[in-house]
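Please fill in the sequence for the structure shown.

STRUCTURE ENCODING:
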């Protein structure tokens, strides 16, 4: 999953709202379209973008497809991005990598 896809997915207000709904429950496309002023196919297209970005996953149960938020993917991606652009985080990441390498070198 690339950050470009994640930010493209998050750039849409309806997609952010879909993520908010999915943060509390697994829902079907029909469940979500009932909450929005848009058609089921439109919600389906939004869900496809979110799924391609790795922010949601789907599971077929009988005739319904349930969608759920991939919390770890969202949190890890956004945290990784924040660490890359945060001026304080870069030196800390370098120091952390150096400590990890030193530990690996000392244990092998």
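FILLED IN BY: designer on duty
SEQUENCE:
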């Amino acid at each position: 999953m690339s950050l470009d896809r994640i930010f493209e997915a998050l750039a849409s207000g309806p997609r952010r709202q879909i993520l908010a709904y999915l943060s509390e429950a697994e829902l079907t496309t029909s469940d979500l379209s009932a909450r929005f002023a848009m058609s089921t196919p439109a919600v389906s297209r939004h869900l496809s973008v979110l799924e391609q970005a790795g922010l949601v996953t789907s599971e077929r149960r009988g005739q319904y497809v349930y969608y759920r938020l991939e919390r770890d993917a969202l949190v890890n991606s956004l945290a990784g991005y924040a660490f890359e652009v945060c001026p304080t985080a870069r030196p800390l990441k370098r120091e952390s990598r150096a400590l990890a390498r030193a530990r690996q070198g000392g244990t092998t």
